Amino acid sequence: MRILPEISRTFGEYLLLPNLTDEACTPDRVDLSAPVVRHRVGEPSALRIAVPMVSAIMGAVSSPRLAIALAQCGGLAFIHQNQPIAAQAEMVAAVKRHKAGFRHSDINIKPSATLGEVGDLLAAAERDVAVVTDDGSPGGMFLGLISTSDFNVHRHDLGDSVETRMRPAAGLATAPAGISLSDANTLIWDARQDVLPIVDEDGRLTSIVLRRDYELHKQFRKESIDQDKRFMVGAGVNTHDYRERIPALVAAGADVLCLDSSDGYSTWQSDVLRFVREQYGDTVRIGAGNVVDGRGFRYLAEAGADFVKVGIGGGSICITRDQKGIGRGQASALADVVRERDAYARETGQYVPLCSDGGVLHDSHMAIALAFGADFLMLGRYFARYDESPSSLVKVDGQLFKEYWGEGSQRARNAARYGQGKALVFEEGVDGYVPYAGSLYDNVSITLTKITSTMISCGSTTLPQFHQTATLVEVSHQSYLQNREDVRLRDRPSALS
Ligand code: RVP
């Protein structure tokens, strides 16, 4: 037995001291891009993201819809592996099909359907426009568009057919398959349409272009896209069925894989990494983890991991520390692993990026994690709160929440992640709710502005510079408590009396 001299500390126990901010340090110069996979020191990584955020490998978080939205913002999602191989591969394929700009039309209706039916369809999908095709399929004959502004539940009979209120194809602009994205966008603006249907020579729908995508593209400009301009997406794998799962995910087009395990310091992970190198060389990229110290990092880096994920027990829905007594405060874990990453880079000339996974409760924790040396962050709770996550929106006492459950909860029963054999015997996660927070696009944009602002105060314009120069200070227990109390009084003024 040995006891480490340091205390296990979390992000909330640190603050950043400002460094000198000079004229070169302006928001437009801040570059938050990060390497995702290992590379030679001084050379670029083969896979980079403009925004250092990836979504957690969780059923409550990473759906194709969230993956597309996050890639549009410059991050990357990891589709979860706690589902049949074919289902996971289809989710990956759905993201890859969704070519930037040209969307597979997923909200379609027949002209004979009722206004009530199309209303329900749009409400369930949280969309405004449906495409009308003869058979209601995404590849049917294009007949028109119907949007929420074409009918009103109080003015129109919901039993009437879609045909009575749709805008027919004859009065709409369409474009032939093969049109360039920039020409399609010009047409959208000229025709003042929100949707531009792309049709083949027989009049069949092939895809659609949305005005909102154009606006998002202009807003974010740094989408995560592959060489064919398709959105990038990652996928989780486990140490059990990897011989079948990995080939299926690679065939579906996954850009990067990640071993999904609560404790990654194991020979099973090394076996999977060897399998990938033997089968695919460096053409398939795979991260491993999770680890909480330098030994775990070194083991996985030497076994060939493309990035290493850090964190045990810090997830907001995680009870592993209570159940098994295993884990480490996320800040201490990162500090230890960062030291080893840098030593490994000096010795081998190979930089293996670190992903800090879990434990981000406030946006400021993201800045602290990056200051500690994380290259990018994996977030569960953060993304679960948004429209784009796959979980249900529920109202409790007039307040909106999204469901959010851990992979080790009875609901997910992700036995492969917790090494509990074929079935989950005891829970390592909880099933709960997170306050609903609206659109991913709006929130990511605000969060990035905050991180940028922190970096400017700290005199940094790039993440490597931030890693080098950030100055952190520990917060005393007394000031931590005072801060909590300030927040309590601010949120509930009645507590003052
Ligand atoms: P958070 O962002 O704090 O919600 O944490 C998300 C992370 O928590 C995931 O990426 C994963 O590592 C971990 N997790 C997922 N499920 C569970 C569990 O049930 N214990 N933990």
From TrEMBL:
UniProt superkingdom: Bacteria
UniProt cross-references to InterPro entries, sorted A to Z: Aldolase_TIM (IPR013785), CBS_dom (IPR000644), CBS_dom_sf (IPR046342), IMP_DH (IPR005990), IMP_DH/GMP_Rdtase_CS (IPR015875), IMP_DH_GMPRt (IPR001093)
GO MF, one example: IMP dehydrogenase activity
Residue ranges of domain CBS in the record: 166-224
GO annotation, biological process: GMP biosynthetic process; GTP biosynthetic process; purine ribonucleoside salvage
Obligatory cofactor(s): K(+)
Active site: C318 (thioimidate intermediate), R417 (proton acceptor)
Binding site for K(+): G313, G315, C318
Claim: Cytoplasm is one of the keywords in the record: no
Residues annotated for NAD(+) binding in this entry: D260, S261, S262, G311, I312, G313
UniProt xrefs under PROSITE patterns: CBS (PS51371), IMP_DH_GMP_RED (PS00487)
Keyword Metal-binding attributed: yes
Keywords: CBS domain, GMP biosynthesis, Metal-binding, NAD, Oxidoreductase, Potassium, Purine biosynthesis, Purine salvage
Catalysis: reaction(s): IMP + NAD(+) + H2O = XMP + NADH + H(+)
Family: Belongs to the IMPDH/GMPR family.
PANTHER family linked: INOSINE-5'-MONOPHOSPHATE DEHYDROGENASE, INOSINE-5-MONOPHOSPHATE DEHYDROGENASE RELATED
Name the UniProt record assigns to this protein: Inosine 5-monophosphate dehydrogenase
